[in-house]
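tmp note - NADPH-dependent 7-cyano-7-deazaguanine reductase
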Amino acid sequence: MSSFSDAPLLGRAVALPASPEEAKLERVANPHPGTSYVARFTAPEFTSLCPVTGQPDFAHIVIDYVPGDWLVESKSLKLYLGAFRNHGAFHEDCTIRIGKDLVTLLSPLWFRIGGYWYPRGGIPIDVFWQIGELPAGTWVPDQGVAPYRGRG
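out:
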């Protein structure tokens, strides 16, 4: 599991971590605790490696959450996601691991992640995970990623 801290990466030049295990997810205080709103992060060029062939896998990752007391610090999230570039894991493992690491860090009121993986071998794999109850009256837009249609 990645280590967690409270934002020492912010404002410093930092190299991309070599692996998700070396990455440090950071959090900052939510300036609006008690207000139900959705924060969204989109990583349209996420990459990891197939654990069997070593070939690159590509995904469009969408992360939505309703914060409690904490927000994920965006620079640390960018570095964490980039650390998967040389990490060998199946699509399902990458998507769920990212979700669980963020839930552990943030303890959000509600969380969901969509991993929209591009096809290799002719089969796209989409992976979705959600935890918690969406607070009543909270607006959550569609993740906005169309199902894979090839060239159509």
